[in-house]
């Protein structure tokens, strides 16, 4: 309860508690009472039909202006890392308390890396969140934004299990500057059964689910009495989507099968196989030569490539548009992303594709003090700029730019709500693509350093590219702690193989 102790230490909170004659040691045992009695109630009215409880009210004179960040992905965490906490208080609202290093997430599914190696706690990225009296992390979802009154309506997140007696509750957070960085969600294209039966690969929990399912199917297929047909179904891993995530997961899975499954599950080694389904060409953003190399390498590794469109998803099989039925035991869905229901519900101008529309400085132009970065945002058509791809490097670059912009605004006296109208914002955001990389398994990878699909540039494939891929991602891991974890995991896997315990 570090945040609770810091909250009580806050001069503004202590003065409010004293004015209400409620400050006593006994009340420290009741977080809900402390929140409801110490935090101010917002002047904004909650949505009709919804009762909101306590609030983190507007900042008072003498307090630092408050930056509220919605989301803990690449964009939001890079912004929090770069924000100047000597001039701002930072409040992060997100359903997860960590950032996921997504380029290495596929490696955790098969035991190449441990899950904690790709998760970086927010408190390590921005220590002020756990140390500063006015900065907080709230485990919650954003439900609504009142831009006129500078208020975000939130709802706490709980496990929701039968043994969890804690029920979600609603609260409000006032802001001086709001950054919407809530990301996007996996696209299902309205296909029946995807959400019910497929597993996405965007969170650590998804990777954990994939690992448990994969190892469960391996053990079930080894039981007496299981028919050959059922073994083939249980051990058929289907990946839908031929982008970098789908290709890298297929490559990791093929390595796992060749180097670990065939040694430790000798009785069923001939039944397990991988199918990658893509409507067009795999890795469509890469150079043609690299695409051909990836296709050949995956085929050599035992991955079956199928060009087709999924029409329906059932609990044990998928149906393609040509009527082909594909039985599966594990289905991983990786077909790109789209706006989340929260982003769709916001009454802000939208960019092509349904993202929140922003100008050249990543501001939402229709309201004051609201910015949007990452996968949930895109340039408005009026800017003349194309919508940037949903890539980690785009989100990270936007977070870094916006942190610098907010720091400049604060130094020029525009940190508080409705005070930045006349502040010089400087140069607008410009994105320069640094290239793309993807692993295809068997110590092979692709490196495409072109700035666009039409541009010319250096492209590499093979073992050297795999070494560059690993080196680049190792240096991009957020903390030295996790870099050490990743390096040790890679070395352990190389020497002893992957762990196959189902925990």
TrEMBL record:
Please indicate if the UniProt record lists Cell division as a keyword: no
Reaction(s) catalyzed by this protein?
A: a quinone + NADH + H(+) = a quinol + NAD(+); a ubiquinone + NADH + H(+) = a ubiquinol + NAD(+)
Q: Which PANTHER family match?
A: NADH DEHYDROGENASE, NADH DEHYDROGENASE-RELATED
Function comment = Alternative NADH-ubiquinone oxidoreductase which catalyzes the oxidation of mitochondrial NADH does not translocate protons across the inner mitochondrial membrane.
Q: What EC numbers are recorded for this enzyme?
A: 1.6.5.9
Under the heading InterPro entries, the entry gives: FAD/NAD-bd_sf, FAD/NAD-binding_dom, NDH-2, NDH2-like_C
How does the protein's chain sit in the membrane according to the entry? Peripheral membrane protein
Name the record gives this protein: NADH:ubiquinone reductase (non-electrogenic)
The UniProt record lists the External alternative NADH-ubiquinone oxidoreductase-like C-terminal domain at 433-499
Record organism: Aristolochia fimbriata (White veined hardy Dutchman's pipe vine)
């Amino acid at each position: 309860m570090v945040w609770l102790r810091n909250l009580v230490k806050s001069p503004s909170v202590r003065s409010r508690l004293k004015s209400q004659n409620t400050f006593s040691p006994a009340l420290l045992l009741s977080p809900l009472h402390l929140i409801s009695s110490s935090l101010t109630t917002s002047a904004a009215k909650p949505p009709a039909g919804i009762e909101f409880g306590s609030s983190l009210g507007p900042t008072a004179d003498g307090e630092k202006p408050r930056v509220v960040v919605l989301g803990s992905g690449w964009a939001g965490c890079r912004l929090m890392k770069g924000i100047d906490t000597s001039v701002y208080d930072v409040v992060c609202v997100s359903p997860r308390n960590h950032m996921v290093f997504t380029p290495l997430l596929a490696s955790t599914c098969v035991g190449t890396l441990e899950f904690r190696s790709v998760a970086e706690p927010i408190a390590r990225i921005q220590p002020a969140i756990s140390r500063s009296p006015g900065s907080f992390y709230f485990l919650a979802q954003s439900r609504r934004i009142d831009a006129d009154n500078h208020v975000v309506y939130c709802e706490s997140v709980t496990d929701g299990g039968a043994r969890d007696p804690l029920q979600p509750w609603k609260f409000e957070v006032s802001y001086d500057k709001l950054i919407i960085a809530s990301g996007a969600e996996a696209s299902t294209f309205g296909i029946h059964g995807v959400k019910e039966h497929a597993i996405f690969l965007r969170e650590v929990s998804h990777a954990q689910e994939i690992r448990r399912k994969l190892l469960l199917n391996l053990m079930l297929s080894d039981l007496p009495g299981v028919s050959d047909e059922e073994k083939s179904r249980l051990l058929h891993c289907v990946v839908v989507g031929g982008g970098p995530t789908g290709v890298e997961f297929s490559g990791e899975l093929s390595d796992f099968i060749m180097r670990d499954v065939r040694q430790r599950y000798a009785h069923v080694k001939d039944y397990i196989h991988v199918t990658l389904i893509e409507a067009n060409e795999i890795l469509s953003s890469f150079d043609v030569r690299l695409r051909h190399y990836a296709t050949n390498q995956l085929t050599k590794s035992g991955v079956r490539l199928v060009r087709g469109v999924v029409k329906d998803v059932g609990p044990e099989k998928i149906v393609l548009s040509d009527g082909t039925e594909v039985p599966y035991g594990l289905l991983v869905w990786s077909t790109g992303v789209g706006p989340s229901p929260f982003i769709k519900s916001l009454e802000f101008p939208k960019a092509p594709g349904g993202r929140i529309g922003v100008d050249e400085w990543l501001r939402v132009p229709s309201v004051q003090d609201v910015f949007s970065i990452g996968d949930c945002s895109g340039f408005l058509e009026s800017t003349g700029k194309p919508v940037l791809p949903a890539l980690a490097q785009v989100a990270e670059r936007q977070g870094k730019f916006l942190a610098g912009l907010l720091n400049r605004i604060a130094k020029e006296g525009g940190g508080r709500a409705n005070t930045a109208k006349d502040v010089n914002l400087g140069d607008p955001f410009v994105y320069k693509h640094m290239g793309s990389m993807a692993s295809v398994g068997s110590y092979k990878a692709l490196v495409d350093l072109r700035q666009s699909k039409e541009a010319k540039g250096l492209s590499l494939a093979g073992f050297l590219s795999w070494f560059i891929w690993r080196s680049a991602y190792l240096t991009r891991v957020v903390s030295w702690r996790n870099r050490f974890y990743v390096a040790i995991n890679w070395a352990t896997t190389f020497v002893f193989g992957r762990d196959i315990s189902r925990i």
